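Hey, quick one: can you model this chain's 3D structure?
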Amino acid sequence: MKKKRKLGRLFRFLGFLMLVFCLTFFLSGGLNIFHPRTWQGIGDFLPREEKELPSNAREDEPDEPELSDRISRVVFLKRAVNRHIRQETYVTIDRISTDLQHAVIAVEDNRFYSHHGFDPEGIARASLVNLQYGQIEEGASTITQQLVKNLFLSQEQSFGRKAEELMLSLAMEANYSKDEILELYLNTIYFGSNFYGIHDASNGYFGKDADELSLAEAAMLAGLPNAPSLYSPYVDFLMAKKRQFIVLDAMVRYGYISREDAEDAKIKPIYLAHD
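Sure thing. Here's the predicted structure for all 275 residues.
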């Protein structure tokens, strides 16, 4: 009997210690272990993977990854992202024209700083704008969704692929700041004429670095990802100008520039690097 009482007191004591540990763990911020960003550093200790082109820069369709690879890509997202980034031409956000950042947000995803990777309201708004113009002028996908498609996903249209896109978008928003997501997007998006990323596009079209772009040039570049093979000024300059006007009007609509600035930019001459 005494032995049972001693065991009971021992278990109660151990339970008390466990309770104290849990409280201390919680009060010291221990719950951060469950935050997605906590796991990203662990990815640095995993075997290094070979560099790979982003999905949108590949000539062939990427192979469908195994389930374990899909899970690893979400859990160790930063490791997966770094695998697809070209460091030699990567441009940080502080070296990218503010006008270009604003132009891209205005025409691609004007609620970028308020949604969490998926934006039903933005889809509805884009649909109305596109109906008004009678053609696709604003994208329904968020910048975050476009980024994960550019980096990882095939062109397959299926519910499974859309679910994976949504999951990766939520993971991206949990692990990166908005400015980091925009930075990654601008470094991976296709601008037409075989220019992937803002470094190649700004130099290839205008012979300038990304922080030297004028408003007129930034608006033209921001309009290209919508249909890069059609809107490239090297392919059809008039179409590129029409798209530039739409971008400038969107920047006015969302308060990034004044109507006077937009009209001035519309008549500014554009000098291409390889005219």
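One thing worth noting: Residues 192 and 232 are 6 Å apart (CA to CA).
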